[in-house]
Design goal:
Elements lengths: L6 E2 L5 E2 L13 E7 L6 H12 L3 H14 L1 E8 H17 L5 E6 L1
Bound molecules: L-tyrosinamide.
The site of L-tyrosinamide (TYC) has 13 residues, from strand 3, helix 1 and helix 2.
Length: 108
Amino acid sequence: MSDDRPFRDGDGDELVITKVKPKTERPPLYRVILLNDDFTPMEFVILILKKFFAKSDGEAAQVMMQVHNDGAGLAGVYTFEVAETKVYSVNEFSRRHKHPLKCIMEKE
Ligand code: TYC
């Protein structure tokens, strides 16, 4: 037989036991995307993908060709601050090397 009498404290007051479910929400993610242009050398785009997005030679060449053929391509997916830093670093690096390559981010 089960005992369903309420729990009471020392003063006889009823205690309500509330179970709190711990909720660990995932942070929103952002796609970092490279845009095609007619002037940035293919080798420079491959260098960017290796340097800032930890791609292998093969992966970098694949992503670069996708950008070249489709107009845009996915470099990586990150939390907001990481994505923002990648975008800033890539655009700054490209500008410094006098290439028009553009990098943007968008929410997944
Ligand atoms: N379209 C460029 C060329 O033919 C290559 C290129 C690829 C440029 C990807 C930008 O994000 C880019 N040299």
